[in-house]
Design a protein that fits this description.
1 helix; mainly beta; 479 residues; 24-stranded antiparallel barrel; three-stranded antiparallel β-sheet
């Protein structure tokens, strides 16, 4: 089937080549990784070639991906031998579209969001290297009344040879200047381990307002999961955000309440500065409630102050977390200095675990003798308790970025200290990255050294990134 789509695309290009308004652009990203760990596969290679063609009201796009295999930073996906299932060479992204006046049609690989993303978001997560994009048909009308309708499929997480379905509609209307009302209805049909489909229907309403110094947004969603799922569950989600500018003082607050909204085709707001989950072991949206308060103030012309605090908990209050960020930013001429304090604490009474991460951080963008230089440092302390076990360690980091003519240089050093008495015997992870435009349209990036890895939180999920030691080479070409 895919070769027919490729042939159709090629014929379209040939027919349009004679037109003066034909536009073609694209990018090729090639990446080679050599990992020096003894118990791991050493060589990895991936390449992605994508291009976009537009003529009049029509547009086309394709992406060729080769993974031989592709290097994954996910700790659980590391390999010690080549896995045939991880090798692939194929045209994996295809799309075509048509736009005329306020109407548009899109078919193929789709990125789309309904409302704030609580109900539906079809997207590619580049940081975690995950593709949550639907292969769909999307209709859109962008008048005063904005309408969207989508019907699509995505490979099942349980069985990669089967598809989950998602379809629905979204509407938004400008009722008054600066005030919009919207509604969404989406149905999800997910395959189960028994090769049958479970059902989930979600309905949502939202409001956004921008009047003078006030910005506000709220969305509420409710639904039900049923059929071939046990137990049948009622779902709900509420997120509200408010900001008010009072002179030089910006005040903000947010509230969240989620139950049963931990599915992959959405992206719920976490309502905390560091995008932390309630628990490292669970995806956000399953069962949590919380609030956030924040304030920022411009003092004179050179000083910027910021404070952000959030708390969250589950319905049983077994799981709790708090998140704090304090910062002072100072600018003078072209120089910029930032001092901050970061704090994240999580408690799980059911598992008898507690952890706290806190660290001061410093950064500076300076121009000594007209030479742009970025410096940064942080000193993280990690305390953990589990039953009767207690542990503590330190993770210092320093880095510098500078540019010499066309060559950009990054220097970094990370470490892991059990205590201050073991500094000399601790692990140190130096790294250097060079970036150079070898041509007007091509950029080469080289990294050599070590990276510590550790916890990364994104889109309501926390994962542990594998440590790295070796060489990475990336070549990016745009046309």
């Amino acid at each position: 089937m895919k070769w027919k789509l490729v042939l159709l695309f090629a014929l379209s290009v040939v027919m349009l080549m004679g037109q003066n308004t034909l536009q073609i652009n694209g990018i090729n990203d090639a990446k080679f990784v050599y990992r020096t760990a003894e118990d791991s596969l050493n060589a990895y290679f991936s390449d992605s070639f994508a291009f976009h063609l537009a003529y009049s009201d029509f547009r086309f796009g394709m992406t060729f991906n080769s993974e031989l295999p592709k290097y994954s930073t996910e700790q659980t996906e590391l390999m010690d031998e080549i896995d045939p299932a991880r090798l692939s060479v194929d045209w994996e992204e295809l799309y075509a579209g048509f736009s005329k006046d306020d109407f548009s049609l899109h078919v193929g690989t789709t990125e789309e969001t309904f409302g704030y993303g609580i109900v539906l978001r079809s997207f590619e997560d580049l940081e975690f290297d995950e593709d949550h994009r639907l292969q769909s048909t999307l209709l859109r009308y962008d008048g005063k009344l904005k309408l969207k309708a989508i019907y699509g499929a995505i490979n099942s997480e349980i069985n990669k040879n089967r598809y989950d379905l998602a379809y629905g509609a979204d509407a938004e209307y400008l009722v008054l200047p600066g005030i919009n009302l919207g509604a969404s209805a989406v149905a999800f049909r997910d395959i189960t381990p028994l090769n049958a489909y479970s059902y989930k229907d979600v309905f949502a309403g939202r409001m956004s307002a921008s009047r003078g110094n006030l910005e506000a947004f709220a969305e509420y969603a409710a639904g039900k999961s049923y059929r071939n799922t046990s137990p049948q569950n009622d779902l709900h989600a509420l997120y509200a955000n408010l900001e008010y500018l009072w002179g030089n003082l910006l005040l903000g607050a947010a509230y969240k309440n989620y139950e049963g909204f931990d599915y992959r085709l959405n992206d719920i707001p976490l309502a905390n500065y560091h995008s932390e989950t309630l628990s490292d072991a669970l995806a956000s949206g399953q069962d949590e409630e919380g609030w956030q308060a924040r304030a920022s103030y411009v003092l004179g012309e050179n000083i910027y102050l910021m404070a952000d605090y959030a708390e969250a908990w589950d319905s049983s209050k077994d799981k709790q977390m708090n998140d704090l960020y304090l910062a002072l930013e100072f600018s003078q001429n072209e120089d910029l200095y930032l001092v901050s304090y970061n704090h994240v604490e999580k408690l799980d009474d059911a598992l008898a675990t507690w952890q706290k991460e806190y660290y001061p951080a410093l950064s500076a963008n300076i121009n000594p003798f007209g030479f742009p230089l970025h410096l940064a440092a942080e000193f993280k302390t990690v305390d953990k308790e589990s039953d009767t076990t207690e542990s503590s360690h330190y993770e210092p980091l320093v880095q510098a970025d500078f540019k010499f003519k066309d060559l950009s240089v990054f220097l970094g050093l990370q470490s892991w200290w059990a205590d201050f008495g073991s500094i000399a015997q601790s692990r140190y992870m130096p790294g250097i990255e060079l970036k150079y435009p070898i041509m007007d349209h091509s950029e080469l990036i080289l990294f050599a050294g070590k990276e510590q890895g550790g916890k990364v939180c994104r889109n309501g999920v926390c994962r542990y990134v594998a440590p790295f030691e070796g060489l990475r080479a990336e070549l990016s070409t745009r046309f």
